[in-house]
Sequence to fold (170 residues):
Amino acid sequence: MVLAHLFVDKRTKQKCYEFLKQIKDSCYEQIIERFNQEKHKKVCDRDLIKFVCDKFANYKSAFSRNFYRIANLSFGVPIACKKYHLEHNNNPIERYNEKIKDRMNGMRKGFSSFSGAENFMNLNCVIHNFVNPHQELKYKTPAEMAEIILPLGRDKILGLARYLANAPLI
Fold:
């Protein structure tokens, strides 16, 4: 599932922190639950939640600030290394980012405002998680794989709009 996104000009240390903070805000309870289950084991034997990213140094410092000791960070392997059965290839996120770039290029002029870009990213995240099935997930959506079952019906976008229209405001 896409848990967070941040549309930026440059990946500064502060922007990397803000991005990982979005994930922390939505998933911290699950991450700390796994940590509490594993903390009695030796550090090398713990099966903690693992994040995979590219080797950009700002991610490491931002990760330590948000998830120090309660999760693990792994750097992805290059696409060419996947054929050698190395783990933690970051291809799925690269494909997701490429889809966004293609969509933005198709819009020619881009977005008229930053809020328009932000709304596009939010909608794209919802469609990725709840509407489009994925071949790697056996033609289920990420939400279905995470056992988040919503009564959307056959037309998932319309069903999602109806579901949200009837949802109570938080």
Remarks:
- Residues 13-76 form one domain.
